[in-house]
Every structure is written in structure tokens, then in C-alpha cells.
Amino acid sequence: MNALKEGLRRAGKEPFAIGVLLVFHFAWSVPLYRYIEGHVIEVMSRYPPPELGKEWANLFVYDFLLMMQDKSFALPIAGMLLAYALIRLVMVPALDAGVFNSLSDERMPRGTAFIRGVRRLSVSFVWLYLLRLALMAVPLYWAVPAMVRGWFSAGDPWQLAAGVAPWLLLLLVWSAMLKLLFTYVLFALTEDDRLLASLAFFFRRIVPVAGIALAVFAVSFVVGSALFSASLYWAGFPSVVLYLLYPLIRIWLRVWGIAAQHRYWQAHRA
Fold first, then answer.
1. Angle of CA points 214, 215, 220, to nearest 5°
2. Which residue ranges make up each domain of the chain?
3. How far is it, in rounded angstroms, from Cα 31 to Cα 163?
């Protein structure tokens, strides 16, 4: 509980880091949304009206599949989406380097600590991020064939859910534990601490570490659900305001989660 309180206080002192993450969120997501929207509208404008019948709808699907086989149409779209993915793949861990360094160095001005972390640690953070993604994909070797077999052997939706749900839960837990594990690896990297000592700390105190993460997740879920419900209740301009505020709140909660883990690590690693 003390780590959560201290992390909450520490997150409140990181307006620069939260602001940079928010700017990146909009700078990355808004152009991507506009790009996808433009192509979806271009394609869907050809969709036939319902009164023309099912044959015209099937003709639309056939025409769309032919368009996707045209390299002059498909390759620019695939290339642009790949570019957006690569930008995110590099920028997310690079900005995380700034957040981690800003949390660990309280003496420097917030902006200076953040920028110093990006310059000093971003390359290492990117490689560790790629390693975490690779490890997250390992269970797919067993999960995907098992889920495909369950899909074809299921007689009804309940059987399908019973066959697929355990694998989805396994993937979720595996991904969450890897994220927590690498969080402590990044703490050690940021503060030039021993990696093995940080890993031993994580496995020795895995229950309270997971408890802190679950508490932050529960708060995030409640806040997200409340904002979603409020946006449905207050339609119109208030709904737009809540929609624009949600990324800020989500980023702040994410920084709180990192800060809480960092405070726990600092308080008990000795």
C-alpha cells in the first residue's frame, strides 16, 4: 500500500514525462486514424445499397479482393502501416527510457532527466523491448494449433469458449509476468545495478509485485469503465471531452504503475 501511495505522489511530479507521452500518443495515433479512415471511406463508398440484393454485395467483395491483389494499391498501404508500426516499436521503449530515468533521478529537473534517459538508455530499452516481444510470442507455438483444433472440433460456441479460454488466459498471464519481469530489468539497467540481483528480487517478491500491478490494473479498469459509461450517458460535447481526456488519464495511470513498482524496489532491494 505504501508503494502505491508513494508511486501516486511520484507520478504527480512527472508532468514533463506524461506530457511527452501524451504528445506522442496523438502524433502517432491521429495520422494513423486519418490514413485508415481515408482508405476505408474510399473503399466503402463503392458498397452497393441493400435494395440491389446480395449479388451486388458479393460483387463488391470480389472487387475488393481484386484491388488487394493490385500491388499499386496494396503495397503503399502495407508500407505505410509497417512504417507506423516501426515508429511505435522504436519510440515506445525510447520514451520509456526517459520515464524510467526521470523516476530514478529526483535531483535533476524533470525535463533534463527525461531527455538524458532517452539519450543514454533508448538503444538498450529498444533491444530489451524486442526481446520481450519475442518471448511473449513463444507460447503461440503451442497455443495457435491448439486453438485452431478447438475451433474446428467445437460443436457450439460454449465448447469453443471452453477450449480457447484457457489458452487466452495463459497468454495474458505470460505477457503480464514478462512485462513485470522486464520492468525490474529496466530498473537495474537505469540505475546501473546488478541484473541478477534485480531478477532475484523479482522472483523472491513476486507476490507483492503482482499485487501492486493488479491494484493499478483494477483502478485503471474502474476509471476506464466509468469514463466509458459517462460518455454514453452524456452524449455530445461532454462525451468528446471525456474521449480526449482518456489518453491523458491512461498515461498517468501507466506512469503511476511504473512509479509504484520503482518505489517498492527502492524500499526493499537492500
1. 95
2. 2-268
3. 39
